[in-house]
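To the wet lab folks,

You asked to see what we're planning to order before we commit. Fair enough. Below is the target structure as tokens, and below that is the sequence we designed to fit it. If anything looks off to you, flag it before the synthesis order goes out.
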């Protein structure tokens, strides 16, 4: 065999990249070529000339190692070699500097979520008319919106409640609960109790973003009957509507009857009386004192509303009982092999066994024992004007109005009511303490327990009783709270969250101090003025800071008086 034939017969190295004849290049063996059948026309690489490959990313491409970079024209793949990966194929999200990393995209999404949430808050605040930072409650006096500013420290709490309202899965009752909390935060201290909040909630339910919301079952039933009547619901002999007011205690009993009917409809309490009987009880407690003595005829409007309300309650009761029967039937079918069958709920009391007390005595002797709704601390515009020193140095008020006059003698009293053992009421009266407490009992429909003066003590009136009360209130200002009393539908501000022992000690201290006659009378032709004596003003700081028990307080003050 000739040298030429041996050269032709010698197998050429596979997968070698040819070098130009003028500049010999080192060669590199690549991986074994894949079978040709694994490549198709669709998988042929295409060059993306718009892509830019950085020097750092070029190392990731499957290019041969040469002394000088090869161009696509210099290395054309043959049929026996696999196609080289193109720049467009080798570029990934990790190696491209122009694409965002996962952390960047997460930050962008978080930023967009924050912007969307902020826009949603603005939308809801504008819809609820609270974006101007004003109270916005409707005043009773002129039916105008209150312009008192909202407390700035409550802004974050309001935003949190609005975020809860934005959730699409809220039930009607949850929405009303959130709106009630929002109204209490948004309204000023003069309008943050339930009557004003309820009126605001009714307006808000109509203007919520996304359309009006349906009322809850409880609100729907209350809307049927409407607000509690203020005037007597009877008709006079001449056929006109009675214009007498309903006593506050009777009005409270009528409201309790309505709540009882709603609770029965919702299944919250056991059925003790029929709805028909409770409707008769409501009619009785919406009469004035004059129409309680003889048979009466209720006004047609109230008869219609009461009948509709009773039927709606009965319908809810029937549907609930049907659901309970169905559940009990399913439970029985599932446990038919068991020895005992457990009902979903106890069966309702048969109507023949229901106790029907006379409407006239249904609520007799039953006083309110529910907890006060604490609205917050008693807030004043300038607390420096209500310190002990400022109150003590003021001239005594000489107005004829007994509730303001500070010259008259009287008694400072303290009492508690059932269901609110942590709170005490401190007030004053120029009359008998027992008579004053009887008035509170009638107005608030709560039975007071007198704690000071003691019932068996021989009471002696103290001079300047109203000034003593004001000094006690000033010293206990940090413990003062505003409470809402549901029976009288008013808020009270003379309640304190303090122990009885501490409250009695403060009352005793200032009662003993006032007996020293620290104020002197100065008469002129124009007026009479009572001013604090100079020597008393000097030792006022020591007395104001005194915090020992009443017995020692008395000894200490007595020694100073000597």
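Sequence we intend to order:
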């Amino acid at each position: 065999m000739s040298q030429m034939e041996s050269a032709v017969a010698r197998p050429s190295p596979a997968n070698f990249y040819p070098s130009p004849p003028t500049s010999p290049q080192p060669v590199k063996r690549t991986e074994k070529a894949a079978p040709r059948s694994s490549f198709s026309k669709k998988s042929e690489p295409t060059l993306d000339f718009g892509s830019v490959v950085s020097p750092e990313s070029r190392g990731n491409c499957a290019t041969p190692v040469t002394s000088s970079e090869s161009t696509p024209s210099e290395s054309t793949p043959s049929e026996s070699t696999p196609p080289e990966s193109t720049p467009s194929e080798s570029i990934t999200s990790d190696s491209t500097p122009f694409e965002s990393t996962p952390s960047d995209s997460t930050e962008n999404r978080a930023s967009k979520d924050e912007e969307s949430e902020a826009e949603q808050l603005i939308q809801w605040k504008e819809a609820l008319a609270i974006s101007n930072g004003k109270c916005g409650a409707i005043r009773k006096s002129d039916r105008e919106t209150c312009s008192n500013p909202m407390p700035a420290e409550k802004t974050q709490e309001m935003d949190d409640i609005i975020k809860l309202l934005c959730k699409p899965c809220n039930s009607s009752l949850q929405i009303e609960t959130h709106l009630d909390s929002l109204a209490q935060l948004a309204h000023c201290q003069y309008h943050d109790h339930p009557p004003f909040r309820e009126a605001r909630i009714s307006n808000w339910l109509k203007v919520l973003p996304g359309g009006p919301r349906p009322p809850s079952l409880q609100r729907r039933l209350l809307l049927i009957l409407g607000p509690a009547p203020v005037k007597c619901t009877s008709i006079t002999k001449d056929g006109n509507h009675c214009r007498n007011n309903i006593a506050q205690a009777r009005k409270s009993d009528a409201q309790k009857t309505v709540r009882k009917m709603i609770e029965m409809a919702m299944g919250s309490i056991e059925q003790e009386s029929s709805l028909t009987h409770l409707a008769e009880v409501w009619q009785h407690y919406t009469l004035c004192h004059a129409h309680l003595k003889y048979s009466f005829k209720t006004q047609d409007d109230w008869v219609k509303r009461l009948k509709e309300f009773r039927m709606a309650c009965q319908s809810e009761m029937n549907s609930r009982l049907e659901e309970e029967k169905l559940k009990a039937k399913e439970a029985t079918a599932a446990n038919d092999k068991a020895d005992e069958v457990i009902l979903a709920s106890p069966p309702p009391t048969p109507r023949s066994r229901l106790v029907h007390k006379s409407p006239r005595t249904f609520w007799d002797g039953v006083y309110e024992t529910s907890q006060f709704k604490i609205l917050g601390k008693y807030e004043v515009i300038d607390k420096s004007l209500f310190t002990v020193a400022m109150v003590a140095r003021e001239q005594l008020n000489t107005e004829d109005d007994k509730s303001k006059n500070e010259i008259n003698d009287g008694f400072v009293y303290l009492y508690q009511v059932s269901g609110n053992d942590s709170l005490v009421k401190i007030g004053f009266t120029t009359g008998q303490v027992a008579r004053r407490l009887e008035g509170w009992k009638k107005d608030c429909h709560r039975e007071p327990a007198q704690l000071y003066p003691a019932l068996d003590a021989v009471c002696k009136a103290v001079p300047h009783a109203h000034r003593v009360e004001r000094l006690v209130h000033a010293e206990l200002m940090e413990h003062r709270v505003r409470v809402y009393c549901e029976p009288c539908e008013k808020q009270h501000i003379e309640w304190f969250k303090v122990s009885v022992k501490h409250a009695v000690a403060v009352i005793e201290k200032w009662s003993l101090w006032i007996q020293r006659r620290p104020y002197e009378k100065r008469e002129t032709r124009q007026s009479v003025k009572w001013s604090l004596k100079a020597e008393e003003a000097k030792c006022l700081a020591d007395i104001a800071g005194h915090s020992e028990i009443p017995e020692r307080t008395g000894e200490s003050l007595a020694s100073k008086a000597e």
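Structural context that might help your review: Strands lie at 373-377, 411-417, 424-429, 448-452, 480-485, 490-496, 519-523, 528-532. Residues 300-334 form the longest helix (35 residues).

Thanks,
Computational group
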